[in-house]
């Protein structure tokens, strides 16, 4: 994991960017249920060196502290790596500074407060368009605890409510989601997700369904996504 982050920083620098320009990461960990705690230690260490962690005291110039939005999920690498990552970077310039901000969620505790270094979402503002990259979201409450163990219907409902609350801060909602990835621990629960979407009028929401372990064994559902809406 340390090498992965450090290599990403070198690749960004080679292309005129920096890790502070990263708005979203997608991280796939081969044995997430066994390795997630160790992964978080490594990420926290590297992000501290990159001067991204809250409470860091060095001079950051005009850029705010930013932990990227992130999805962390089980995923196998065709190269046999323990973890692999995609990133989306939005570099600024002296003439056009970066226009994105870290988002919190009133329904959930900030993840970095319980050891996971990512924000709940990132909002990128353009003159006439707002884009929100939604972190992988599961049924985790305002204390950082998992909710509704064993109850996938309740976990799905809470997660959708949490994403809706995140988007509401920018004047949007679930109806503005243009692209989502839905992670279910059990394939048999797909029909429950579809039933809830029908109940909420979300049958047209573009999404991909996949079966994967989530970062905690008791969590049965997670969803990330991208929302965009016109500001005019």
Q: Give the tally of β-strands.
A: 9
Beta-strand portion reads 25-35%
Pick out the low-confidence regions: 56-63
Overall morphology: globular
Helix residue percentage: 25-40%
**Count of DSSP H/I helices:** 4
Key terms for this structure?
9 strands; 232 residues; six-stranded mixed β-sheet; alpha+beta; 25% helix; 27% strand
Topology:
Elements: H1 2-14, E1 22-29, H2 32-49, E2 69-74, E3 83-89, E4 100-103, E5 121-125, E6 129-137, H3 152-168, E7 177-184, H4 190-199, E8 207-211, E9 221-230
Parallel strand pairs: 1-2, 7-8
Antiparallel strand pairs: 1-3, 4-5, 5-6, 6-9, 7-9
Description:
By secondary structure, the chain is α+β, with helices and mostly antiparallel strands. The protein is built from 4 helices and 9 strands, in the order αβαβββββαβαββ. The chain has helices at 2-14, 32-49, 152-168, 190-199, and strands spanning 22-29, 69-74, 83-89, 100-103, 121-125, 129-137, 177-184, 207-211, 221-230. Strands 4-5-6-9-7-8 form a 6-stranded mixed β-sheet, covered by helices on one side. A 3-stranded mixed β-sheet has the order 2-1-3. A hairpin with a 3-residue loop joins strand 5 (121-125) and strand 6. The termini are far apart.
């Amino acid at each position: 994991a340390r090498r992965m982050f450090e290599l990403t920083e070198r690749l960004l620098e080679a292309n005129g960017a920096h890790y502070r320009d990263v708005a979203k990461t997608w991280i796939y960990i081969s044995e997430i249920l066994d390795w997630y705690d160790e992964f978080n230690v490594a990420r926290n260490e590297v992000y501290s060196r990159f001067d991204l962690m809250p409470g860091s005291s060095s001079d950051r110039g005009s850029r705010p502290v930013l932990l990227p939005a992130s999805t962390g999920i089980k995923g196998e690498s065709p190269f046999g790596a323990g973890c692999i990552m995609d990133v989306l970077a939005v570099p600024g310039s002296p003439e056009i500074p970066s226009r994105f901000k870290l988002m919190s969620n009133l329904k959930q505790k900030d993840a970095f407060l319980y050891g996971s270094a990512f924000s709940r979402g990132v909002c990128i503002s353009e003159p006439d368009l707002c884009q929100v990259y939604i972190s992988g979201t599961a049924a985790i409450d305002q204390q950082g605890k998992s909710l509704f163990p064993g109850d996938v219907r309740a976990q799905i409902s809470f997660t959708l409510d949490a994403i809706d609350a995140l988007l509401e801060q920018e004047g949007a909602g679930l109806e503005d989601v243009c692209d989502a990835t839905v992670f279910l621990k059990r394939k048999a629960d797909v029909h429950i997700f579809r039933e809830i979407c029908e109940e909420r009028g979300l049958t047209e929401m573009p999404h991909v369904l996949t079966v994967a372990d989530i970062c905690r064994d008791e969590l049965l559902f997670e969803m990330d996504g991208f929302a965009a809406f016109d500001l005019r």
